[in-house]
Each structure stands twice: as structure tokens, then as C-alpha cells.
From TrEMBL:
<feature type="domain" description="Solute-binding protein family 5">
    <location>
        <begin position="76"/>
        <end position="455"/>
    </location>
</feature>
<comment type="similarity">
    <text>Belongs to the bacterial solute-binding protein 5 family.</text>
</comment>
<dbReference type="InterPro" id="IPR030678">
    <property type="entry name" value="Peptide/Ni-bd"/>
</dbReference>
<dbReference type="InterPro" id="IPR039424">
    <property type="entry name" value="SBP_5"/>
</dbReference>
<protein>
    <submittedName>
        <fullName>Peptide ABC transporter substrate-binding protein</fullName>
    </submittedName>
</protein>
<feature type="region of interest" description="Disordered">
    <location>
        <begin position="22"/>
        <end position="50"/>
    </location>
</feature>
<dbReference type="GO" id="GO:0043190">
    <property type="term" value="C:ATP-binding cassette (ABC) transporter complex"/>
</dbReference>
<dbReference type="InterPro" id="IPR000914">
    <property type="entry name" value="SBP_5_dom"/>
</dbReference>
<keyword id="KW-0732">Signal</keyword>
<dbReference type="GO" id="GO:0030288">
    <property type="term" value="C:outer membrane-bounded periplasmic space"/>
</dbReference>
<dbReference type="Pfam" id="PF00496">
    <property type="entry name" value="SBP_bac_5"/>
</dbReference>
<dbReference type="InterPro" id="IPR006311">
    <property type="entry name" value="TAT_signal"/>
</dbReference>
<keyword id="KW-0813">Transport</keyword>
<dbReference type="GO" id="GO:0015833">
    <property type="term" value="P:peptide transport"/>
</dbReference>
<dbReference type="GO" id="GO:1904680">
    <property type="term" value="F:peptide transmembrane transporter activity"/>
</dbReference>
Length: 536
């Protein structure tokens, strides 16, 4: 008989004790003019072309400004570009840069800066983790693979204020893509002078609302208002400190003590207590994201689809969403979440409709076929994750579910920087926790992750020619209905093969102090500091 669901709590406590205080203490007011912003993790880099995480995106959104950007309600607004036009065939976008755009050292922001930056991120020697997201640009894939010189990339600057981007095929999400950190410009003279060291304090030249003032690893990254920003007069907060908060229970204590003004994540198992304690300071909202277990498809027995399906069937996603995450996540049976633009209802992996006992019986049958279970070998699984309270509790609960199938689970957990670097670099693993927050609300932004050759994102190195062919056909399809059908057929292959086992779809969850104003939960989880304000 499977152990009772509440037994996972004992295991979680053995790994890390968490508790919510019964009373809400008085909050300190904080240092005047300094917004202490809790961030998911310490960034690996402040080079936008080498970044890959949401924690980095929050910081880069304050330091830099792309052609377009987000406001604090998640709406796309003009950024470095003041206007744009699109050709009749949808393949050429022409942007007019604002006349008052300037770098923090006083240099003008020019179209040539964007040409330089887009060529840089796609140059093979940059080794950008996110380069593939820009493959809609003409010749981008060939440039990134070293098959064409950077000068053949579909980007040109006819004059200092005009940027022309030419595409391989129709890209209905291009404007949203240009808000992303991959499309951010860097200051060419700084890169030339300092190489990879251009991101250090005192060297980093940015074009956003803030400049880099200080960096203390694992403690804080401090930004100050950029007086040369084109809209500097409307930026109300003079300084912001991004404080890494991977230990969520500790982060809540710091918030309660008035040491931070906002948290971008909360311990799901404490949501009832947090709502009772902090009231409307707990803010939940929509999100476009998924958390999965990536299987190492290069390694037996996880190369066997029967094993992957059995592991998936045994997972009680409703329990994870409600009991472990406190209703701040929803069960995921598909990679793509509902609500994406240019898509219908995502195809799902089996398990949602059947009774748990039936799913368990089918999982046992699949394991027996693969040679595991009573009379066969005992399946042992290494579950790797980056350490947060929520991730730890999810791992313990999932291992409890697998125990009912006779599966032995051991944990390997590290900080986020180490965890994701290990996966990107092709390190060995069995199953690994992965998550993805959409860069734009289109199914392609989820499905491209598992394309063959996308080694920076495709942990487990899944490859299926039929899947890749469907993605290629969708990229060339101008009819949005036919494109949606091609992408749905591609996702159905993923739900059959389960190289990534979907667990949960995200909701945003935050703690917002009364002294902070202007925060609005939104689908893009965008809250640029320039649109917020603090009480004195």
C-alpha cells in the first residue's frame, strides 16, 4: 500500500524545517529611497547575451532597454524604439529609434548598437545559452552554427536611427520577442575595451532606467537611477537592491522583519498561514510557465519510454498543486500551459481522467515490461533539483508517490547556479527539475526547448526527427490555424515520449510591502522598478 500523502511532510522536515510564525511582527520602514527587492537567485551573469534565468531577467530589465519593453501591467510599450512598421508579407520590420536615447556614459543609442548586439549574441564564440530564441531572424541559425558570417544576419542600420530586421518566415510573436533579454543591446565600445569583463561595476554602461552601482555575490546587486535615461524624470525609486532569496522560509522571515520590500516567490506549503498573517500583502496572479522533470534520454533505463511513462503516471499532480504548493500552481499534463496566443487546448499526456489506482496499475505494468518490479530489478532514481523549500517539498512528495511502485529515490540538490550550469554543460543525471517561464505567449516558446541540437535548454538531449520537422513546418507557415495544428501535433509527440515529464503550471506569487506601490500581477510577471514607487 502506498504511504499516506501526509507522510511526505515528515520527509520534507528531515531535509529542512520550515515554519510560519503565528503573529505578524511590526515591519521596519526600511532605508528611504532604497527598494530592497527579493530575487529568485543570484545571477550567473549580467551579460544579457549569456543570461538565461528569470532572476537575471528582472535585473537586466532595470539595467537595459530593448527596442520594446514592458510596463508594470505586462503590456508591450515602446522602448529604445519610438515607432515601427511591418511589411505587407510580415517579413520585414523597420524600427525608428528615439532621438533622446542615450547610454549611461552619454553616448547616443544607435541602430548600429543593435546590429552589433544581435550579431554578438548569435556569433558562435559568444556561446549564448539562449541564441536559438532569435532563430526567426534571417540566417540566424546559420550564423549561430558558424555556417555564415555575422554580417549576413537579417539586421541592418541604414542610418543611426533606423533599424531593419528581416525574418526567415512569419513570426507572429516578434514584437514580444524584442522585449526579451536576448534582444537587449550592449555598449559596443565597452565590450571592445573590456571583453567579458564589461559587466563589472564601474565598467558596465547601460541604456535602461538604472546603472550598476555595486555587486556583492550572494548578498545583493545594487542599482542607481540613470540620469541619462530618456524618461529619468518619471523614475520614482532612486536605488534598488536585488537580494537573492532562494531559501523561501528565511526570505519570509526577512520580509516580516522589514529587511526586504518584496518577494518574487513564496513557500507553497505555507500559503494558508501567509495569507492569514500578511493579508492582501500576499499577491497571486497569472503566469505562463511550467515545471517539469527532465529525463536523461541518453541514459538507461530513462532512455526507455515505458519507464518515463510509468514515472509520470504515478505522480499525483493535484496533490502537488494543492497540498505542496498551496494552490499557487496548477496540475500540468502538457508542456504548454493554457491561454497561449495562436494556439488551442494543448495535447495532454495520459493520467488526468483515470482514477489514481488505475494509473498506478498501468505504471506497474509498464515497469514490469521494462524489467522492473516484483520478480525483476528494483528501479533506483536520482532526482536532482535546485534548492528552494518548494522544490525540496515537491521532490520529497514525488519520491513518496514512486515508493508505492517500489522505486527508490535519492536526492542531489545544489544552488540554482550550479544546478542549471550542470544541466546546460551536459552533466550526468537521471531526472532533473527544470522550469520555464515563457518569454512570449506563443507555444513555440515552449516547444523549441526540446528541438534537437538546442543543448543549452534541452537537458537530456532528446531528439526526434518527426518532432523537429513539425517545428520547421510551423516556422514557415503563415496561416495561424495551420501553424497551431502543426505545433499541436509536435506537442503530442512530446506527450507520447515524455522526455520532459510535466508536473505543474505556474501562477505568480509575491509578498508586497505596504510601502511599495505600482505592483500589478500580470501574465508576463513583469514589474520594472521604473514604474514602482516607495513611501518615504
Amino acid at each position: 500500500m502506498r504511504p499516506r500523502r501526509r507522510d511526505w511532510l515528515a520527509g520534507a522536515a528531515a531535509l529542512a524545517a520550515t515554519a510560519a510564525a503565528a503573529r505578524r511582527p511590526a515591519r521596519a520602514t526600511g532605508e528611504p529611497g532604497l527598494y530592497r527587492r527579493g530575487n529568485d537567485a543570484d545571477p550567473e551573469t549580467l551579460d544579457p547575451h549569456k543570461s538565461s534565468t528569470v532572476a537575471e531577467a528582472h535585473i537586466l530589465r532595470d539595467l537595459y532597454e530593448g527596442l520594446l519593453t514592458y510596463d508594470n501591467r505586462g503590456a508591450i510599450i515602446p522602448g529604445a524604439a519610438e515607432s515601427w512598421s511591418v511589411s505587407e508579407d510580415g517579413l520585414t520590420y523597420t524600427f525608428r529609434l528615439r532621438a533622446d536615447g542615450a547610454w549611461s556614459n552619454g553616448d547616443p543609442v544607435t541602430a548600429g548598437d543593435f546590429v552589433f548586439s544581435l550579431r554578438r549574441i548569435l556569433a558562435p564564440e559568444t556561446a549564448a545559452k539562449y541564441a536559438e530564441v532569435l532563430y526567426p531572424l534571417r540566417h540566424a541559425a546559420a550564423v549561430n552554427r558558424g555556417e555564415r558570417p555575422p554580417g549576413e544576419l537579417g539586421v541592418a542600420a541604414p542610418d543611426p536611427r533606423t533599424l531593419v530586421i528581416t525574418l526567415e518566415g512569419p513570426t507572429p510573436y516578434l514584437l514580444e520577442l524584442l522585449t526579451h533579454q536576448t534582444s537587449i543591446p550592449v555598449h559596443p565600445p565597452s565590450v571592445a575595451a573590456h571583453g567579458d569583463g564589461f559587466t563589472r561595476p564601474g565598467r558596465l554602461v547601460s541604456n535602461g532606467a538604472y546603472i550598476l552601482a555595486g555587486l556583492v555575490p550572494n548578498d545583493r546587486i545594487t542599482l542607481e537611477r540613470n540620469p541619462r535615461f530618456h524618461d529619468a524624470g518619471s523614475v520614482a525609486i532612486p536605488r534598488v537592491a536585488f537580494i537573492p532569496t532562494p531559501d523561501l522560509a528565511s526570505a519570509v522571515r526577512r520580509f516580516a522583519a522589514g529587511e526586504v520590500d518584496s518577494l518574487a516567490d513564496l513557500p507553497g506549503d505555507q500559503m494558508t498561514a501567509l495569507k492569514a498573517r500578511f493579508g492582501d500583502q500576499v499577491v497571486l496572479g497569472p503566469a505562463l510557465g511550467v515545471t517539469v522533470l527532465a529525463a536523461n534520454t541518453r541514459k538507461a533505463p530513462f532512455s526507455d519510454v515505458r519507464v518515463r511513462r510509468a514515472l509520470s503516471l504515478a505522480i499525483d499532480r493535484e496533490f502537488l498543486a494543492d497540498a505542496v504548493w498551496g494552490g499557487t500552481m496548477t496540475p500540468a499534463y502538457s508542456l504548454c500551459p493554457p491561454g497561449l496566443d495562436h494556439y488551442g487546448t494543448p495535447p495532454e499526456t495520459p493520467g488526468r481522467e483515470a482514477l489514481p489506482i488505475d494509473n498506478e496499475a498501468e505504471a506497474l505494468r509498464l515497469l514490469a515490461e521494462a524489467g522492473y518490479g516484483p520478480g525483476g530489478r528494483r528501479l533506483s532514481v536520482e532526482y536532482r533539483f535546485n534548492t528552494t523549500d518548494n522544490n525540496r517539498n515537491t521532490a520529497v512528495a514525488t519520491a513518496d508517490m514512486w515508493r508505492g511502485l517500489g522505486i527508490e529515490t535519492r536526492f542531489v540538490y545544489t544552488d540554482a547556479k550550479t544546478h542549471f550550469a550542470h544541466l546546460r554543460d551536459g552533466g550526468d543525471f537521471d531526472l532533473a527539475r527544470m522550469s520555464w517561464i515563457a518569454d512570449y505567449a506563443d507555444p513555440q516558446n515552449f516547444l523549441f526547448l526540446l528541438a534537437a541540437g538546442n543543448d543549452g535548454m534541452n537537458a537530456g538531449r532528446y531528439a526526434d526527427p518527426a518532432y523537429d520537422a513539425l517545428l520547421g513546418q510551423a516556422a514557415a507557415e503563415r496561416d495561424l490555424a495551420r501553424r497551431a495544428d502543426l505545433l499541436a501535433r509536435a506537442e503530442a509527440i512530446l506527450m507520447r515520449d515524455l522526455p520532459w515529464i510535466p508536473l505543474l503550471h505556474y501562477r505568480s506569487k509575491a509578498l508586497i510591502a505596504p510601502r511599495l506601490h505600482g505592483y500589478h500581477p500580470n501574465l508576463r510577471n513583469a514589474a520594472p522598478t521604473r514604474f514602482l514607487r516607495l513611501d518615504a
